[in-house]
């Protein structure tokens, strides 16, 4: 049996959770990434990205810019490695945090687990979390389980029932809300060489959602195509809301009876290989435009993650996860903007 000194610890993440509660009991959360230089296989970094995606999909959780938070911690010389509960509470106070979550991945031979601690900054009370990673387990599933347990820990520390955090409210619109007729144009791009996009995942995710909620969609004459490849953090093609092509799209959509056209861009990139799974990341950006006035009614953007035995499918899943997370927000903004 291997001794404890043979356990290798890899930094997983330092997650700063700034939590406040409004009149409705909603939680506002800020998540800051940590240094993953010791995470050689990429598992910890990807699980942390999945955690972020899962939290951001919560209607009762709002994520703020993590880069600014990371810079603040760096200025104070605080990071994920070597943190104790006391130091975590100190770091939380420096950024005005209600909760501070930190952790690491632990490996002993072929056995792997993710360990986290959720610290309530005001009281210093700590809740430990341990998620074991099964052999050849999908890293997406690991991240989802971690997110659920983090949410449950926050609920328990705050004294609220776990159900208040873990059960998402169903999408709904006010009675009598006007649903405008929509058109969609969301091309995709991939940093993976020779990755074609004949059937855009973001566009299909939006189409499925809007049809489910009784919006009418008209089809444009030319389907969305793939565009020049670019990495998510590189110079991805921009979403242009002006120019001759933009005006031609508005004209066609208006001529086919669309009140609003949703323009967008989806960018995906294959990450590392984790066991037998290819993992991918994606960023999507949407803008809803009134076809008659050219007024921008709503904009939104966000990130998603995906994993699969196929890198192509992993990228599709990453795009779909980002689009699925954002479309309820976009839909409400469109209805509100179109009605005024």
Describe this structure in words.
It contains 8 helices and 11 strands. By secondary structure, the chain is α/β, with parallel strands linked by helices. It folds into 2 domains: 4-166; 182-338, Rossmann fold (3-Layer(aba) Sandwich), CATH 3.40.50. The strands form 3 sheets. Strands 7, 8, 9, 10 and 11 form a 5-stranded mixed beta sheet that branches. Helix 6 crosses helix 8 (311-338). The protein is globular. The relative contact order is 0.13.
Helix content: 25-40%
Task: Please give the domain count.
Answer: 2
Name the average pLDDT.
75
User: How widely separated are the two ends?
Assistant: 69 Å
Rg, alpha carbons:
22 Å
* Counted beta strands: 11
Question: Helix- and strand-based class?
Answer: alpha/beta
Q: How many helices in DSSP terms?
A: 8
Name the beta content range: 25-35%
Question: Topology as H/E string?
Answer: EEHEHHEEEHHEEHHEEEH
What ranges have pLDDT less than 50 throughout 5 or more consecutive residues? 1-14, 229-237
| Main beta-sheet annotation | 5 strands, mixed
């Amino acid at each position: 049996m291997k001794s404890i000194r043979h356990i290798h610890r890899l930094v997983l993440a330092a997650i700063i959770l700034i939590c406040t509660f409004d009149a409705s009991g909603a939680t506002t959360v800020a998540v800051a990434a940590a240094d993953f230089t010791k995470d050689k296989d990429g598992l910890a970094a990807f699980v942390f990205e999945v955690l972020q995606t899962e939290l951001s999909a919560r209607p009762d959780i709002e994520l703020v810019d993590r880069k600014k938070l990371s810079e603040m911690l760096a200025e104070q010389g605080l990071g994920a490695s070597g943190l104790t509960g006391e130091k975590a509470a100190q770091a939380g106070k420096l950024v005005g945090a209600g909760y501070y979550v930190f952790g690491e991945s632990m490996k002993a031979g072929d056995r792997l687990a993710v360990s986290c601690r959720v610290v309530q900054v005001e009281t210093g009370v700590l809740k430990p979390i341990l998620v074991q990673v099964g052999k050849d387990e999908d890293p997406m599933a690991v991240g989802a389980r971690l997110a659920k347990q983090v949410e449950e820990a926050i609920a328990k520390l705050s004294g609220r029932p776990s159900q208040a955090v873990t059960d998402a409210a169903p999408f709904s619109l006010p009675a009598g809300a006007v649903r405008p007729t929509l058109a969609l144009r969301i091309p995709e791009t991939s940093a993976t060489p020779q990755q074609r996009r004949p059937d855009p995942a973001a566009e299909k995710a939006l189409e499925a959602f809007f049809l489910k909620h009784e919006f009418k969609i008209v089809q444009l004459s030319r389907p969305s195509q793939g565009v020049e490849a670019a990495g998510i953090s590189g110079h991805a093609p921009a979403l242009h809301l002006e120019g001759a092509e933009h005006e031609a799209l508005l004209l066609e959509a208006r001529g086919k009876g669309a009140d609003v056209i949703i323009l967008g861009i989806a960018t995906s990139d294959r990450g590392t290989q984790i066991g037998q799974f290819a993992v991918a990341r994606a960023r999507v950006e949407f803008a809803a435009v009134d076809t008659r006035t050219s007024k921008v009614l709503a904009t939104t953007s966000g990130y998603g993650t995906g994993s699969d035995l196929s890198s192509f499918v992993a990228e599709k899943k990453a795009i779909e996860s980002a689009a699925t997370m954002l479309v309820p927000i976009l839909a409400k903004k469109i209805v509100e903007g179109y009605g005024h």
